[in-house]
Amino acid sequence: MSTQELSQHLAAAVTTFRAEGDMGALQESLAHLVRDHPAAELAAAAEPYRTMPEVAGPIFEKVVEADPDNARALVALANAYWLAGRGPEKVGELASRAIAADPENRAGWHLWCLSESDPRERTIRWRQVVARFADDDLARATLADSAASLAGAERDPDALALAIGEYEILRARAARPEQREALDKALITLRAWSL
Predict the structure, then answer these.
(1) Is 0.90 surpassed by the pTM of this model?
(2) CATH number for the segment(s) 1-115
(3) Half-sphere exposure for 50 (CA within 13 Å, toward CB)
């Protein structure tokens, strides 16, 4: 079976699953595809389904088994596990492996942060990511949100100052009027807090 045929078979299995909702049939189809195809071909065919954990999970399990240092596959599997609710420990372990395999893989770093359940530790992780990738505005926004949440929950003035500082950086970088307006509102709210 060619790569194109593999993609077609996978698309057909997903279409049938979406129409009928038969998880058993989908799992059976995926088991055949995973058994009969090399990991690299499976990874390429699964790209359109990375946000469907019931598809991405079984496929990227095979890819990671075949290539345990493939950062992209580790991130795809961690993301599938995250979306499926498999637990932060497993997601964090896969994200850590992805980071070790490719320290420049931002998605691995993001999943590593998300997998931390303690709000203070999660804020520390986001701060590490922002320090490493200063131009990553998604990480910066998440750091600001995390710090603001921590400030509110624990009445922490340092976390509040961190949140305000990060929102100010985002405000200075904002290109669209609606972004600036939303950030201005957030800053007004945070500056009015008395902890």
Answers:
(1) no
(2) 1.25.40.10
(3) 13
